[in-house]
Write a structure and sequence with these properties.
By secondary structure, the protein is α+β, with helices and mostly antiparallel strands. Helix content is 56%, strand content 15%. It has a four-stranded antiparallel β-sheet with strand order 4-3-6-5. A three-stranded antiparallel β-sheet has the order 2-1-7.
Length: 331
């Protein structure tokens, strides 16, 4: 699983599920935003609800998935939930000043749409009941979600964005729209047995020696394709002289990718070790495609609007008095 993907998804999903706290004893407070308290009870219910949805999407293995900094998803989860709940409370307070409201009908429609996405309603309702998440709590959170969305859309649409703004963004971020691909061939000398299990150290050493011998023959002028057909253990590509076709970054295993993308057209790598065994890689072609401005125009508009919203949120946070009591969460 990609680290960045889960980071973004966590923020997006949490933002749609956070709730507002209410006054209670100091022992039950996880944060205070401009005098408004976020309770531990609301924090726990929010974390449980978001967590349940993650399990429904990705399975329970989501919690041990690695995210940024070598931490697991679970280790990052509580901090992100609290951060988003604080942002939500800041938006609530600002929306109230600007008379942004939602109707009971809008809340009902949001709840109805949400429940239609639940595959096993009985199981979901049982989970909610066991964790004290009642209908009133859900109505409140959907109300806050709608307020959050209305405020965000208001901020994102207030600033006029011109054609020049869009083109300037495209030109400034041109590297993001480039897609580098290479066409490569390889010879694989595997270090796995027929069951997919690693060979012994002694057998692995023999495989490495075999790969080095093949590389020496290539350097002496022997034909790469012929050697791939004769010796490569990747039978799917061996019949085509080791040809893997064109591929971009993020497709091959890291060791293979790193070595392959460093090569120039026509170059052959040294012996490269991966979890599959020993590779000899030859780059047959390199190409770079750039997505056109017209194809990216709508995405750029969204990116600029999102930047405007983030800047506004940072401004509001700096102007707010925020206290966090992480020891209460940890306890």
């Amino acid at each position: 699983m990609k680290k960045t993907f889960f980071k973004i998804l966590l923020l997006a999903l949490a933002a749609s599920l956070v709730l507002t706290g209410c006054n209670t004893s100091n022992e039950d407070i996880v944060a205070v935003v401009n005098g408004t308290k976020i309770t531990k009870s609301d924090f726990e219910k929010t974390a449980l609800k978001v967590g349940k949805e993650y399990e429904m999407i990705f399975g329970e293995e989501i919690w041990t998935s690695e995210v940024e900094g070598g931490k697991t998803f679970k280790e990052e989860f509580d901090n992100e939930i609290l951060n988003v709940m604080i942002s939500q409370e800041i938006v609530n307070q600002q929306a109230e000043k600007e008379n942004i409201t939602v109707t009971d009908e809008e809340v009902a429609n949001e709840m109805s749409s949400y429940m239609q996405m639940i595959e096993n309603v009985d199981e979901y309702n049982k989970f909610m009941e066991e964790n004290g998440i009642d209908e009133e709590f859900l109505k409140n959170h959907f109300r806050q979600t709608l307020i959050f969305d209305k405020y965000r859309n208001k901020i994102m649409s207030e600033t006029e964005i011109t054609e020049n703004d869009l083109r300037d963004y495209y030109n400034t971020h041109i590297d993001e729209y480039k897609k580098e691909e290479i066409k490569a061939s390889h010879i694989l000398i595997t270090t796995l047995n027929d069951m997919g299990e690693p060979l012994s150290e002694e057998e692995t050493a023999k495989k490495e020696s075999e790969a080095q011998d093949i590389l020496a023959r290539i350097k002496q002028g022997d034909d790469f394709e012929a050697l791939a057909k004769e010796y490569s253990d990747d039978k799917a590509s061996a019949s085509n002289g080791g040809d893997l076709g064109y591929f971009a970054k993020g497709v091959m295993v890291p060791e293979f990718e790193e070595a392959a993308f460093k090569l120039e057209k026509g170059q052959v790598s040294d012996v490269v070790k991966s979890s599959f065994g020993y590779h000899i890689i030859k780059v047959d072609d390199k190409r770079e495609e750039i997505t056109s401005y017209e194809d990216e125009k709508e995405n750029i508009l969204g990116a600029i609007r999102y930047e405007i919203y983030n800047e506004k949120m940072e401004e509001l946070k700096k102007a707010s008095e925020i206290e966090q009591f992480e020891d209460v969460i940890n306890k």
